Amino acid sequence: MRANTYKTVEEESPKKKRTSPLNSWNKKFLKWKFISQDEEEENSQYIQKIIFVTILGILYIANSFQAEKSHLRINKLEKSVEKLRVEYSTLKYDFINESKRSQIEKKAEAMGLVPLETAPIVISVPKLEDQ
User: HEC profile for the chain?
Assistant: First the structure.
């Protein structure tokens, strides 16, 4: 019979914990005290509010620049529309003026055409059904 002995257990070398990049980034971010769970620290109380107000200020400034740009573009378009309206009105007036009978007669005289002094003769054709 054999004597009872203890089995020796080989100790494994401790495994190194893998640190994810997110975890290390989170630790750095907490060092900046933007997000701190500690209520006693004075800086951490106000930094979140200051960042929020800064973002709101940036959005307000960007919105005002965009509104000003739109306003200038609208003014330019209104001026160009007014110019086009005036051009349309003058062309329409010229066309109406040129199509008057007196203006047509003046142009025809320059070509050697003379207007009729007598009324034109109307030729009537009897309908084929009447025959």
Answer: CCCCCCCCCCCCCCCCCCCCHHHHHHHHHHHCCCCCCCCCCHHHHHHHHHHHHHHHHHHHHHHHHHHHHHHHHHHHHHHHHHHHHHHHHHHHHHHHHHCCHHHHHHHHHHHCCCCCCCCCCCCCCCCHHHC
Domain of residue 82, residue span: 34-111
Residues 9-46: tens digit of each pLDDT: 777 766 666 666 667 766 666 665 555 555 556 666 77
Assigned domain for 118 exists: no
Does residue 18 lie in a domain region?
no
**Neighbouring residues of 98: CB distance < 8 A, sequence distance ≥ 6:** none
Judge contact between 35 and 29, C-beta under 8 A: yes
- The answer to whether position 62 is within a domain reads yes
